[in-house]
Every structure is written in C-alpha cells, then in structure tokens.
Amino acid sequence: MSRRLASSGALAAALSWALAATVHAQPAGDDALAPAADVTVTDTAPEDAAPTAAAPEAGEEAGPAVTATVQGWIDSRTSVGYASVARLLPADDAPQLSNLSEANLQLRLEIGERARVYTDLSLVWAKAGLTYGAGAEGERVRLPAHDIAAFRPGSFVSELYGLLHFGEHWNLTLGKKRVVWGPGLAWNPTDLFNPPKDPTDPTQQRAGSWLTRMEGQFERWTLSVLVAAKTTRQLGGVPAGLVYYPDDMPAPAFNSAGQPMDDGRDDEPHFAAGARVYGLVADTDVQLFAFYSHLYQDVFRHKPRLGAAVSRVVGDAFVVQGEALLQRGSARMLFNAACLRDFGAAAGCASAGTPVASAEQRDDSGLRLKALLGLRYQFGEAASVSAEYFVNTEGYDQAQFNALAAALRLRRDAVRAGLPMASGGLPGMPGASAGADPGTPQKFAFEPLRRHYLFLSYMHPQLADDFTIQAVAILGLEDLSGQLAPQLLWSARQWLTLSVGAFITLPGRASLGAQPLLGQPSAEGVTEYTLQPNVWRAFFAARAFF
Amino acid sequence: MVSPERFASRRLGGGAECAARLLVPMFVAFALLPSPAVAQATAESLLRQYDGAMGPVNFEAKTRMIAHRDDGTTRDYTMKVTKKGDDKFRVQFQAPSAVAGQEMLRVGDNLWVYMPNLKRAVRLANRDSFQGGDFNNADVLRVNYQRDYDGKLEPSCTTAEAHCLDLTAKTKSASYDRVRLWLRKSDGQPIKGEYFGASGKLMRAAEFKDHKAFGGLTRPGKIVMRNMLNLKRFSEMEWQALRTDVDPPAARFVLDDLGK
Asked: Are residues B17 and B71 in the same domain?
C-alpha cells in the first residue's frame, strides 16, 4: 500500500550499509586515541602513532574505519508482594511471586568520524504465579495458574538507530531512540514522544520511539526538529506497522510488553512532531518547544502544544529545573456520573446510547498547563536530594475522580456478579494504553490521574565505597496517597551489582479520597494509589555487566 | 685547576678583580639555571607553566584512573578526555562496562553528566568526587588555575629543587579554597600539590610523577591523589596517550552532543 510507511526500511538500509562497512573495515590509523573497546573489529594504531590515515592497498577499496563496541548485562529480578483483592482494580494479574530475567546487548558501531549505529536490545524471560482474586462475596481466593500478559517472554528493542553528521554542525538520526528534552528528573511533562516514564526508577529509562531527527548543534545553541511515528503493531520487538495500522493486522493485537495495543484501527496517521531550540544563556539551559501531534499517545487530533524549560545551578550545590507544557483541551477520559450510580443506571445509559465515558473536553478551547518545578541539592561526595512539584491541570477534580472510582466499583461488582466484562483496565487508567511503543517491562508506570504531585528522591552513592541508597516517593497531594520505592544497591564487583528494594503503596487519607458510591454515604474512601491492588512488593535483583 | 674567580680575574685584568668577585657568582648561578623563564620565575609565570602542561589549550587524551579503596581493592576506569579552549572539557568513560558510555561535559562553570541508562544528561554542581575516586570533578574537568586562583611564591616551603606556590581561590567554582603547588625549578613541572578546604584542613595531596613527552608537550604521566581524610585511600590517574595537535569542533561540546 503506497501510503503505508515501509517498516524501518530506511533503518534497514542504514544497518546494511553499516554491516557492509564493517566487512570493508580498514585499519583505523587515523585515530591515535582509538577507544579501548571491549570488542574491536579493526586494528588500532599504536597510541603514539602519527594521525595519518592508512593508505589502502592497490586495488583495494578504501572504506571508513569501523569500530564496534559491545556491552550489556544479564539481569535477574525476583519479586514477592501482596495484592489486595478488595481494591477497585482487579488483582487477578498482580502476581505475588515473579521473576523477570533480562539479557541486554548494546552494540555501537562507529563508522569513521561521522556515522554511528547503535542498538540496545533485550531478551526477557518472565515467569509469574501465585495470584489471588475475589470470590462472589469478595473473599480472597487463590486463582489457578494463568497467562499474565505483562509477564510473557519477549524481545525488546529499546533503541536502534543510525546517526550521521553533516558538516560541522548538523546531524540526522533515524531509527528508534529515546529523546528527552526536559530537565525534570522524576517526570517530564514536555516528553510527548517516549513511553511513559517510571519515576521510581530514575536510572533505568531506556526505551525510545521510532523517529527521524535533524539537529543543528552550535556553540551555544541547538535546533532540533523531530518526527516520531507510533508503532501500531510490533512482533518480537520489531515494528510491523508504523504511523498507520496495517490492513492485515489480526485482532486482538498485543505490543511487545504483552499489553493490548490501541486497537483503533483507523485509517489515520499516528504521529508526533516537535521543534526545539536550546540555548545556554547566562549559565542557564533554556529550551523552547513547539509540538504537533495526531493520535500519537493520546486522543488528540491535529494538536499543537507549546513548551519551555530551564535548568541552572544556584549557589554551590543547588540545581533548579522547571519545564512546562501548554495546550488547549484535554485528552482525559471523563466518566458520566449519571450512568454509574448502579447497574440499572448503566443499563439505561447503554440502551439510550449515552456514553459512559468520553474525552468530552478534547476539543474545547480551555488552556491546560502541565508544569514541573524542582530543586536538587547536592551534598557530601555525590549525594543528592531533590523535590519536584508537578501540576497537571488536565487531571481529575474531585467530582471527576469520584466518577472514575464509581466506574471502577461498578465494574468490580459486575465481575463479582459474574457479568461478562472486557478484560484490561478502564480507558485512561494506568496500563490501559500502550502508548506509542513500550520498551522493556517497567516496574511501575506513572500516569497522573489527579492535579498535584510531589516527587521526592534521595540518592547517596559510594557509601562504604560500594553501596548506594536511593529512595523515591511519589505523593498525590489531593489525598496524600503515593508510592514509596526505597532501594539498596551493592556493587559487589566492578561487573556485578546486587540490589534489594521495595514498592510500598502509601494509602493516604481515605477521607480525602474518592467516594465510589456516588451521592451515597460510604466509608469506602478510595485514594488514587489504593485503586491499584498492589499493597507492597519487594525484590532482589542481580545484574552482571559485560 | 684555575678557579672561576681567578680565571675571570686573569681575563679581566687585576683591576677588575673586585668586579669579578661579584660577577662570577652571578654567572655561575645563571649558568646553573635551566632556562631564562624559570630563572625569573614569578607566581604568574609558574601558574601559566602549570596550566600549559596540565591543561593545554586543545587536547585529546586517553587516561586511566585506578581508585584504591579502604579494603585494599581497586576500581579501574578508562576514559577519553577532550579539551577545547579555556572552558570546554568532555570526558567519555570507556570501561568498565558498568559505566561505559557515561560522559561528563563542562562548559565554563556548567557541568553535565550523561547517563546511558537514562539516555539523557543532567546538570551537576561542581563539587562531586570524580567517579568515586579521590579526584574532584574539577581536578579533571577544570584545569585552569590562572583563572581560579591567585598565586604567590611562598619562600617558607620552597626547597632547593622546587618553587612553592601558595594559591587562594578567587572564584566560587574553584574546587579548593587553597592549594599549595611545588614546581621543579629545573623545568617548572609540577611534582607535588596539597589541597585545603575552607577550614584550612588538608583534604588531598597529589604527587605528579613519570614526567614524559607527549608529542611536543612534557607533563606528568601519572598523578597520585591521596585522600588525607582517609589515608588508606588514593587514586592514580595515568595519561596513556595525549595529542595537542587537535582542534575538536565546538559542536562536540554542547549538551546535545552527549551520548552521540
């Protein structure tokens, strides 16, 4: 189909070129400081060699010097936890025992001075079990072993791209790459391109999106233009459809993380574009952004957005950063409270054709702001503590959150009553959307439902040389619920890191939470982070680098 | 054997004997000095010489840092260091695997670190230790003592072999509040340094060793930095290769180039 984007065709061409260049690699005599790669496919000149290019033999075709560097890790993480069956989101797929093992390979090909090919690939083996659900009376019952989509083995491409420099200032990137422009640590409201971030794990954000980027780098400023394509279908980490849904896609479709893909199957393009100007002005990183997206990671069509960000050091040890995104309308799925009082009301709405949920504010002209302001203090040798406040005016107010909780309560009660319900979460809930393209499985995906959040993080590396303590807390300021993720890492060897950690749900104050029995007195106040079944999880992980 | 005084006296004639007694020691002293620049050493000229050896205007180098820890074990890092002009530094870690791909960039007083697992760079304040070793970030990424310190020659610590410079920080970005540097009288090369905190406490002590020529530049091939707050700890920085005949493009020293 002519209008369909050939899946990674250009990237395949770039890779073919790179591999061909590898075959024709010449001695890298033009770089006396050639990096001491783990794997080097070229002969490197002695370190004191003159910086002259090696002359090709007669009849031999001269090619660019190619250096390959391979690194990666093998990682195994075993988790135990407790999931409550009394919460509004089902616990059926929240295993209390699981193992996720990953073999990661990062290959970097440097082709001469001007071209790079980089890959970050993972094979993941996952196993989960010991799941519980609610019986007809809400009692806790052990569920039989079953397939859990988020724990399917798979292969994942976090990054796979080629980079080519033109002249002194310009470069072109083509492929899958994570591009993060905003300076926020825990969250980036201006990041419209990448899969949702895991704020509890700030050191592991690897997955990018399929994109083309042109960038001009000058001494004090940079101009970037980027177009990203939504992965409409992928198999084994390889995209089978970009921008448009392929006609031959069978249903249901799952992404590589085992989550259901956005199965809209429209004939429209799904993409996002962005332009950004960065400047180092008075020792401050200043950035201005303009975005335009169409059905990329949300329901917006032809949506322009504007953003800005700053970051600078204040005093000796403080770093202050802020970023903001401004848009008209809201992609938030709102629930119709009139349809959610009981089964009868829901059935009435269904028979009348009244939607229970819709993105009714999508096209309104109201301005919405998503902004983050943060302060980080560095102390001691390399320790830091940071606090970031995030305001999300697109989030639910109390009445809208009540309606969401009512929808979840009704759904839970329907399941317990044996009524047929679609699997998966509700629209707009964490895990309900696959985004543009997830990468490797995340431990926790942050999706801000409400309006005010505080991220607190503390990190102290090099304790007794080899230990790192870190803790991240996400706090919803409306109901004071949140997630606490402490972690202790031990670099037992230079190539081996062992870690233990936990994810603990902070229940907050039920009196500030949602009332899922709309208009009726209820003791069942539900806070944002007690919607989800996980009460706590603890894990032990070992990662061996090579 | 004719002494120098007598030799001069004979050449100049008896009437000049008195003058010879004054001139000859000066001549001998002059002859023993290696170069006019060092002979007339001032704090400014020695600092200029130090910066010229330790941080030439442009260079690319391959270095290795070995951090010796309390328990006797070591951590070994290999990195590429690139400098352009007075205020642009970039360090790219190449080994071990756990940190390979990490980069640090300094432009003026701005410092960023690129984390491959984060796929992005974050800003840093200047005072962090360098990869957990005993060097300070600024020790590696900010070698411009003429800009950061006021210096004076300190006779009390000057030795027969070395000038002693007493340096006081003149910018907030300087990594230490006070530094004492010893530079060889013979060629102005640094041989020793002491680094003090705001309280006057000795924090670090450096030995500059294995002086050798890298192309046209002679400088120490190894720096041993001792942590004086914990005497079991020290770090060695070896300069394995260094080129000064380079002019890296300014576009390599921008935030957006990190990770590329």
From this structure: no
- Name the domain count of chain B: 2
- Residues A47-59 have a mean pLDDT of 40
Q: B105 and B15 share a domain?
A: no
Q: What is the pLDDT of residues A142-199, one digit of tens each?
A: 999 998 888 888 888 999 999 999 988 999 999 999 999 999 998 999 999 988 777 7
Q: What pTM, to 2 d.p., does this model score? A: 0.82
Nearest to B246 by CA among A51, A29, A164: A51
Which residue in chain B has the smallest CA separation from A380?
A: B128
Residues of A in contact with B172 (CB under 8 A): 316
Q: Are residues B10 and B130 in the same domain?
A: no
CB-CB: which of A35, A51, A462 is closest to B243?
A51
Residue B179 confidence (pLDDT): 95
For chains A and B, CB pairs below 8 A equal: 141
pLDDT tens figures, B143-168: 788 988 999 999 999 999 999 999 99
Q: What is the mean pLDDT of residues A237-258?
A: 70
- Looking at the fold, whether B59 and B123 belong to one and the same domain comes out as yes
Concatenating the DSSP letter of every residue in A354-398 gives --SEE-TTTT---EEEEEEEEEEEEETTTEEEEEEEEEETTS--H
Cβ distance A178 to B253 less than 8 Å, yes or no, reads no
In a mutational test of the A interface, the residue from B71, B94, B120, B175 whose CB has the highest number of chain A CBs within 10 Å is B120
Say if CB A453 and CB A171 are below 8 A apart: no
**Using CA atoms, how far apart are residues A483 and A474, in angstroms rounded to an integer?**
5
Across the range A392-397, mean pLDDT stands at 95
Residues B11 and B136 both lie in one domain: no
Helix axis angle for A398-416 and A343-352, nearest 10°, is 100
Q: CB–CB of B118 and A168 under 8 A? A: no
Identity of the residue in B97, B243, B245 whose CB atom sits nearest the CB atom of A71: B97
Confidence at residue A83, expressed as pLDDT on a 0 to 100 scale: 94
Residue type, A463: L
Q: How far apart are CA A64 and CA A313, in angstroms?
A: 41
Q: Which of A208, A465, A545 sits opposite B97 (nearest CB)?
A: A545
Question: Are both B18 and B97 inside the same structural domain?
Answer: no
Contact A313 B123 (CB under 8 A): yes
Among partner residues B70, B240, B255, which is closest to A465 by beta-carbon distance? Answer: B70
* Residue B190 belongs to domain spanning: 38-257
pLDDT of residue A521: 60
The domains of chain A, with CATH numbers, are 9-53+62-545 (2.40.160.10)
A258-267, A396-405, A432-441 — which is least confidently predicted?
A432-441
Residues 6 or more apart whose Cβ sits within 8 Å of residue A124: A100, A101, A102, A103, A153, A154, A155, A156, A440, A441
